[in-house]
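To: structure subgroup
Subject: Chain for Friday's discussion

All,

I'm putting the inputs and outputs inline so they're searchable in the archive.
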Amino acid sequence: MAENKKVVITRKKTRYMNKNQSLYHLIDTVKLWPSRKGVLHGVKSVIKKGEMIIVTTHCGETFEVYDSKNSRSSRWLRNRWCVEPCQKCHVPAWKIKKYSETIFTNSVGRSRK
């Protein structure tokens, strides 16, 4: 008997995100936080309080940061300078892959003429 097997071909889907957005929107979309040691933490919740953001990671850390486009964490996320995931947060491989395939650009949503 011949078995019918379906072959699923998945192609690399490129995601585009706006480069010049606030840190709150960036973290709320990507759900990753870069530490100063170069480790990517999984974000459980992001709460905006005026100019401040309260970030809670999956490893239990809670801290407040300023909502800035030019902050260290914004630059590190846009330029993908952190690649090592946190062992306590258990960041899944699909999230790291999706983040690594994301392209940050200034021309999101604009027509190219």
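Points worth raising on Friday:
The longest helix spans residues 23-30.
The longest strand covers residues 39-49.

D.
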